[in-house]
Amino acid sequence: MAKDIGTSPDEVQFRFRDDEPVDHGTVTVDACCDQTNATAVRIEPGDDARLLLPFLDRLALVEVNFPSFGDGRGYSAARILREAGYTGELRAVGQVLIDQLSHMRRCGFDSFAPDKRLDEDDAARAFATWVNVYQRAADRRATIADKRHEA
Amino acid sequence: MYKYDQYDQAMVDARVEEFRDQARRRLEGKLTEDQFKPLRLMNGLYLQLHAYMLRVAIPYGTLNARQMEALADIAEKYDRGYGHFTTRQNIQYNWIKLEDAADILADLSKVEMHAIQTSGNCIRNISADHFAGAAADEVVDPRPYAELMRQWSSFHPEFTYLPRKFKIAVIGSETDRAAMRLHDIGIRIVKRDGEVGAQFYAGGGMGRTPMIAPLIRDFVPLDQLITYAEACLRVYNRYGRRDNKYKARIKILVHELGAAEYTRQVEEEFAHMLSVGVEPPLEELARIAAHFELPEPLRRPGPRAGTPLTPERIKNIGVPGQARDGGFEAWALNNTHPHRHPDYVSAVISLKPAGGIPGDATSEQMRVVAKLARHYSFDELRVMHTQNLLLPHVAIADLPALWQALDAAGLGSPNMDTIEDIIACPGLDYCSLANARSIPLAQRISERFAASGRTEVVGELKLKISGCINACGHHHAGHIGILGVDKKGKENFQLSLGGSEAEDVSLAKITGPGFDEDGVIAAVEKVTDVYLATRADGERFLDTYRRIGMEPFKEALYG
Ligand code: HEM
Ligand code: SF4
């Protein structure tokens, strides 16, 4: 059994789900592929999220680590999982900052465990930044183009 | 021209508020400078040698008179009364205060403009052929596709923290007037058996490792355009190098994987993306395209498109016997481009007066140009990647009057694509990364050639100057390129020959050891001597170089 890593539910500052959070640590992508019973996994920037696709049914939590906020690979990892039908918790951890929240949400993240707690008011404003959106993404919101042509 | 609807306006307004909030949090100490930096960069705010610089987006280089006037007002209100037009069809202000930035963005939003993604590791403002919608040789107007991509790339949730900046150019002719293959992605809109689609090139760029983008797909159907671009970006976002910022551009990924392997990965991602459904409805493209319809008088061009103006034809323009300065004829010959309508031309407004700063325009000049656009060009203006402006649709009969007004404002130089039409980066006068001053060098060269009357004799010769290896001044793509280097604490200039950013794209080669400032000016003259002595009929400098090779030039320089 690989050593537990990852964040605990207490460290989660924002969560947009109603189910019970997973109460144990995550394993690495390698460990997840090797062992059959892991239900929580942690993706590092260099990991290929697609390696997890065969195991999506059994996963309840995927943490995507942002060791540095300027490394945007985690956004692609999140969307790839959602595009493949993953419905469990998708948690952004690490250097998760106010100005990244709205984009992360659009890429399919539904929980956030920033390594430094964020100001609640600033965060609320950030989540609400975009009343409308230009692109189709994992949040499946109707885009501006959809609205322009819906009638 | 494209016009915002309520949604576009709301997006830009939301961005202004978001930035105001970010600036507030920075001032309150909630954001460190490190955290704030990418945010201000994504709003076009750079820290330079002396002050902040603000880069304002001019999507695909198209704007109207009111927008140009707003740019003039900003230059006056917040800067020193001038602005600098850039090689990616944007405008930069060099003396901006951080405290004013949000107000400037708010002023811009009132005229449907913004500074979104003009900097930072994201998809930058999209550039296009400056003669789009007007050129006689155009197959398809590229701007609707560029606008579609502008919307797609604005605030893209997945591609805001790419390994490095990402520049896209779109053209719609065989002729390349946008340095398309020197972009991260270059797109040519083509027509095949009546069907319109897009050719994709990926992995071009300048900088310290210049590369010409290879073709990665010959035809992407229009209803898959965004999907294909999204696949290109995703592969880059996931696998572009992040360990070394000098190796982080997509050109390095494409080079290291090989074009075939990169393409294979894109195609795989593309097939997957098609099943996800990210493409906007095709009606959206039709909606956008309707904004770019030609003004009514230009719609029925008759049997033939325009051809280049000849001296004969220029003599007969306007009222017979009308007083006209000798300068008009040279200007009309050099600075006009054939239009799809035979009675019209596109008229280039040079921002390269001999001895001037390439690309600079004063507020006063911007207002003159705006007024002329209203009078003579259906309220439309363009910024060229050569750091000039142009009026896309001018009736040939109006040219004398237009020229007089331009000449009076110091905007009548007849030097498009000549050695005076120099592209130069900001260099040591503004930029903290510079090794050498590019602007004074450009000024001295243009002055020298103008004074000796050689400009006209030499004809088309594209000279490009960068103050350091970052190549903001496109020196790799110059018929003659000059690169500023540091030689034991002294400014030194490397000369290179044979580059081109056009459809005959090539990278320039270094001639040999560098020169000091006086030396490099003399070297440019020697190089043109060789050309003049050996050119065959109708050959441009570049053609002669390609025919005779580097040796004769080396001989003249170092022999
Ligand atoms: C503060 C200093 C700098 C100034 C004033 C500056 C200025 C410019 C300007 C005016 C352009 C045309 C930009 C546009 O309109 O979008 C440009 C493009 C470019 N800049 Fe800079 N730049 C600076 C720093 C850098 C740095 C740090 C790099 C690279 C490390 C760089 C590399 C380039 C390249 C490679 C291009 C165009 C060619 C390409 O896309 O490959 N510049 N720069
Ligand atoms: S080429 Fe170098 S000196 Fe010139 S603007 Fe770019 S970074 Fe500065």
From TrEMBL, chain A:
InterPro entries: UCP030820
Source domain of life: Bacteria
Protein name per its UniProtKB record: DUF934 domain-containing protein
Species the sequence originates in: Erythrobacter ramosus
Automatic annotation (TrEMBL), chain B:
EC number of this enzyme: 1.8.1.2
Keywords: 4Fe-4S, Heme, Iron, Iron-sulfur, Metal-binding, Oxidoreductase
Transmembrane segments: none
UniProt cross-references to InterPro entries, sorted A to Z: NIR_SIR_4Fe-4S, NiRdtase/SiRdtase_haem-b_fer, Nit/Sulf_reduc_fer-like_dom_sf, NO2/SO3_Rdtase_4Fe4S_dom, NO2/SO3_Rdtase_4Fe4S_sf
Limits of the Nitrite/sulphite reductase 4Fe-4S domain: 119-272, 416-557
GO molecular function: 4 iron, 4 sulfur cluster binding; heme binding; metal ion binding; sulfite reductase (NADPH) activity
Residues annotated as domain Nitrite/Sulfite reductase ferredoxin-like: 52-110, 357-409
Region of interest (Disordered), ranges: 297-318
Protein name as annotated: Nitrite/sulfite reductase
Organism: Erythrobacter ramosus
